[in-house]
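Entry 14. Structure prediction run on the chain below.
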Amino acid sequence: MDPQCSVLIVQNQRTILKVQSQCESPFDVLDGANVDFLSEECNVYRVRISRPSSSSTTDTYVRVSTRSCSPRSLQHVEENGRRYCDQNYFMPNDDAELTRLNIVHQIYLILLEGRLTTAPIPTSSPRILDIGTGPGDWAIEMSTKYPEATIIASDIGVFDAGLGHMSLPNIDFQISDAETPWTYHEPFDLIHLRGLSGAFANWPRIYQQAYTHLKPGGYIEVADADPAGDTVLASPETAPHLCAYAAALRQAGDNCGHPRDLGHLRTEVLAEAGFEAIRAVERTFPVGLWPEDDDEKTIGKMALIAALEGLEAFALRPLTQSAGYSLDEARKLCGDVQTELLAPDQRLTGRIRIMTGRKPTSYAQRRSQVMARAMQKVKDLQGSLPVETDH
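Output returned:
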């Protein structure tokens, strides 16, 4: 049998597909290759790859699995002047969004005093899964901090920026939809999700899959700062357009079945999935140039730039597809919010919320947790029953 190898297909300097396959000889990059999808059966695709060589172009047939993604999900969609990974996901994956995500990553690092995670790392060679990795900033830095780690960085689409880091020996970028059944064969020590408010219709299902794919004693970490979840603290008196913007995003999320709030960062949601030792961390930060302290002003400037870059990114597709806005109306709302953000007398504060939870180390602990929750529900039910009195 031919050896297993990783195949990274690149066209016009854009990552199209990275998969595990069986092929005649291992190769990593097919620069300028032509890829023809010939047939599909059970999410397994037979493709013809015409790859250039120094003397001629040859055809290689490989049988590859893209897990839950289809050939359609490998095609970018241009809409409203933004580039999206497919027809459905609401956030763009173009250069402007790349800039915003880079800044957001730096903000997290500052707020966490240089730490990449608030979860304990139980070993020097952990297995780590980064769901919704985007351009891979977090996963790439984790791969450097833990050179003995095995890291899978997964997303529904790809950013061009990831191309320059594909040679890292301990990180594997994959295209996968986290809302479909996970098929990882080995459990993880840490599963990380950040900035995915609105991405999933069923967060409890995501947490159940994460629980299943963690080692006993492994951790999940979930972080978010969605403007629709009131993570920019404002009032209708001081920022009426910002409040209207957040409300419109929440309405759009409700209409399409993808909630845009921080309900997935509640302790009880992780507890229902079976996690223990649940811990919440919140950090606040200025948005704008109003702080007098130089360090605070620096992070305020970064947060302001990220907020301005994110206005249309968060709003255009949801508002036009799920909230009844025309493109002009959506852009006008974003423009009004921008004016508020840039007002000299504006004093806005943002916050991030990070939740961690641990998978119990034994079946006995898991069973004890389930029984404790069941008993608590019985007590709650008994407390709600009417009390009979003698007459």
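The first strand starts at residue 4 and ends at 11.
Filed with the rest of this week's runs.
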